Amino acid sequence: MGGVGDEEPATKRMKLSPGQLRGLSNGSSITEPVAGSSRDLMARPLTSEGDEEVVGSKGVIRRVEFVRLIAKALYSLGYKKSGAHLEEESGIPLHSSVVTLFMQQILDGNWDGSVDTLKKIGLSDENITKSASFMILEQKFFELLDDEKDMDALKTLRTEIVPLCINGSRVRELSSCIVSPSFGGTPGKNIARAKSRPKLLEDLQKLLPPTVMILERRLEHLVEQALVLQRDACIFHNSLNEEMSLYTDHRCGRDQIPSRTLQILQAHSDEVWFLQFSHNGKYLASSSSDRSAIIWEVDVNGCVSLKHRLSGHQKPVSIVSWSPDDHQLLTCGVEEVVRRWDVSSGECLHVYEKPGLGLVSCGWFPDGKWIFSGVSDKSICMWELDGKELECWKGQRTLRISDLEITSDGKQIISTCRDNAILLLDREAKVEILIEEDQTITSFSLSRDNRFLLVNLLNQEIHLWSIEGEIKLVAKYKGHKRTRFVIRSCFGGLEQAFIASGSEDSQVYVWHRGSGELIEALPGHSGAVNCVSWNPTNTHMLASASDDRTIRIWGLNELKVKHRDVRSNGVHYCNGGT
Prior knowledge:
The protein has 578 residues and is of the alpha+beta class. The chain contains nine helices and 31 strands. The strands form eight sheets. The chain has a five-stranded mixed β-sheet, with no helix packed on it. Strands 4-5-6-7 form a four-stranded antiparallel β-sheet, with no helix packed on it. Helix 4 packs antiparallel against helix 5. The model is unreliable at 1-51, 182-190 and 559-570 (pLDDT under 50).
């Protein structure tokens, strides 16, 4: 209303067995007393013409509450004249005269007066009255101490705070400020001291019923909440830069999902079984049945080119794993060895092996100092980088076809331990938790925040498990095809709001994680899609690996990318050359 003057695979081919009052009140001067006769001191309901009316098409917004929130927001924004004009024109005061007086007394430091006025507000809950009185008198106590009036502070504690008979532990802390001057160096320095008076008033607002005192920034909170709900309900929302406006309801288009093939990488000579973007999104690593792995580099324009071909494995390479700093890469051959590579030079730094046994999976501890691997005898082993074996967990810990994950705090190792069970092994507490499925598990992946586990099953379903606190199944995703081989899925997109998966029908499937709705089935490959990976720093880049020996890089439909060797269909074919 503005007033005048306002400014302001383990083995992919192995078949699986089944501060001020201005912002707090109606704009009365901080230094001048709040006007009001003695008969105004008794609290009474806020009245106005039409106070039972509602606004809005749904009939759920009470007019009085709506006007008070707007007035509160105007004062908070510094539009004091507009706030006052709104109160005057609507006949709806932001606060009753007794509440306004109470607020002024708090800001003036009139502690005895504010406690008396608090009682006249007429709160129905005596516990709230006592708690608010405690907060006020505690402020009085600390301000007296700050003014070196220790005896007055002691009197306040004994005759005003203690008789409230609440918060005994806090009373003892306050006592220590006087009786033990060395407690914390100087009296009371080890516990919270006097806060600013506007901060005290804000804390009181949180305690008192909102019908008495409206919380600071309440209208802003409601608007933000509405925007967040709209964003979360938008199944295509996938961009940090997506502007949200109050003028229109938020709705993203399908064009926010990477669904157009931008590049086809053809450097592998056999089926591509696995791929994974680095944590910084600058590299992509792939592994193949051709017994090699490749490190691809992603430039600033999103173009992917071959950086190093990693050769040395004697068997197909089933999996790769990036070090926490992305400077090194692990590759694992099918029941063979794990190799550690330098990403910058492409040099093999170390080979990890177990005599007479094969390694089936690999991964890094979060500090990058140790690695771990599943072994063909179903154990899990941990090594220092130089190859010294540190620990080995025996027993049925991991299957011959297995994914292996570790939480970012390094405490929990996750692996498939039976056909239909996943083991969560707490290294420190020595506690084992099992997640059991009715169907055979083919693969799984851990969310970036360690809160969710995505489990692929033999029956062509993908299950989402919450593993934080109580373990529970929270969602199921269906539509993709899986009959014979290991098919992998992944989290991805903004705040990992999407689930992507390969499929044996040569398509890439994308679901909205929250709703479970299938939103894309992307054709293009000519063989089964074995694995997918979503770039963690570019929500609009997705990669897929296929039996057709290619890797496809998916991006946004409207993205116009200029590459050399662009064919008429707009797809860039890359054989690894630069």
